Amino acid sequence: MTTPPPPSRYDEDGYVPQTCAITAEHVTDFPFREELPAELRPRWEDLVRETGDGRDVITRLAGWKLGGWPTWHLTQPTVFPCGDCGTDMRLLFTVASDDETGVVVGRWGELRIFTCPTDPRHAFQADLH
User: What is the pTM of this model?
Assistant: First the structure.
């Protein structure tokens, strides 16, 4: 067995893998405000005032998540149609910038992967938000 070569970048450049662990946590995720049932909108308005996090406070969660609702803190909600069949794609996975994990996507955004609910063999769509 040979010794692997040393990394070509310094640790502080973020190119060297760091030891970490994944801890699953069940959270309740909600759709964007316009998709909320009318009876929940007053509580949403209270939450926005309490946290100061803006219009997308209920879907903009720190860390990574499987499924749930996409965030729309930069744009209005939009639909991603499947390139193969035209069906509205659904959110599969989100990698969000987060101080706790040290993950930064773009300029503190999110990497989102959307998939076709009709056929998993159809191409996925990646979105930086």
Answer: 0.71
